[in-house]
Specification:
10 helices, single chain, alpha/beta, about 30% helix, 8-stranded parallel sheet
């Protein structure tokens, strides 16, 4: 019988630290085969991302994006992950798209931060007050329970609303000042012009970039890339696909060898000093959706 896992019943079972440990274990398996596909009808889109990991199974994440839905009182995005077993390709589970996306996206960044950020980090700046920003607060709170959090958003009213909903969250009005005071900067904006400036960065910081996912998008400028030791979750889903890397690679600001490691070389994810600036680019990827889905099903089965 196929297991169906909805958001409301699945979400309380999960743990951020456990998920990052599951990511680490998943990258000890053979490298994933991944691919994406798109179908269009005018402005409407069907996106499918699929991954196959020998020893873990197959995951297909499907999402429908209908931009006209909100005007009719219907959410814009719907979807599910179909999870197939490794031995026989049997359909094991259908898992809510939003549940997988929430935990995959923030958990992806948290794994890097657990290895690259200074353990004594106490000031965490969240750039972007959307749904991902809220999830980042939950994720980073699990790994840095003594930290204080600040949020900055281009529209300040949205940051203030987020602060109303999260106890202790402060609102920054000046981004440059907030960046200068942070130990960790985690950014989830869909900017095509860099929001973060490398000249603002301070020794010892960890920068976590999440929002950009297209070749024309970037959240930090060339100076920020040049000043940092750079890590990514997957070479395959970032190097040739996302503006934060494509632009500085194309103009010679950084070289390919400056992108030091992805998660298939987790041993390389470490600080060389308390003064260096580390930077992680979260590109996502279907293999991480598969690892997240497998973790969710395991937690559901043992609840």
């Amino acid at each position: 019988m196929t297991t169906i896992i909805d958001f409301d019943n699945g979400d309380p079972l999960l743990d951020w630290i456990e998920l990052t440990d599951a990511f680490a274990a998943g990258h000890d398996l053979p490298k994933a085969e991944i691919s994406d596909s798109f179908l269009y009808r005018g402005k409407d889109t069907l996106l499918q991302r699929q991954a196959w990991i020998d020893g873990m199974g197959i995951g297909v994440k499907s999402a429908t994006v209908f931009p006209g839905n909100p005007a009719q009182g219907v959410p814009m995005i719907h979807g599910a992950v179909t999870l197939y077993d490794d031995a026989h390709g049997i359909l094991e589970a259908l898992i809510d798209f939003h549940l997988v996306t929430k935990w995959k996206t923030a958990g992806d960044s948290l794994l890097a931060a657990r290895r690259l950020a200074r353990p004594d980090s106490r000031n965490i700046l969240i750039v972007g007050a959307g749904t991902v920003g809220r999830n980042l607060h939950a994720a980073y709170s699990a790994a840095f329970p003594e930290a204080s959090f600040t949020v900055w958003n281009r529209t300040q009213a949205n940051a203030e609303k987020m602060a109303e909903d999260i106890d202790g969250l402060k609102v920054a009005t000046d981004l440059e000042t907030a960046v200068g005071e942070a130990d960790i900067i985690t950014s989830a904006t869909m900017s095509t012009d860099p929001t973060l400036r490398g000249d603002w960065l301070q020794p010892g910081q960890h920068v976590d970039l999440i929002g950009a996912y297209r070749p024309d998008m970037r959240e930090i400028d060339d100076t920020g890339m040049a000043r940092s030791r750079i890590f990514v979750d997957s070479f395959d889903t970032t190097i040739e696909h996302i503006g934060e890397l494509k632009f500085p690679l194309a103009n010679g600001t950084i070289r390919r060898e400056d992108v030091l490691a992805d998660y298939y070389d987790l041993a390389a994810f470490s600080r060389q000093s308390d003064e260096e600036i580390t930077l992680f680019k979260n590109g996502g990827g279907a293999h991480l959706d598969l690892m997240t889905s497998r973790y969710i099903l395991n937690k559901w089965s043992t609840r």
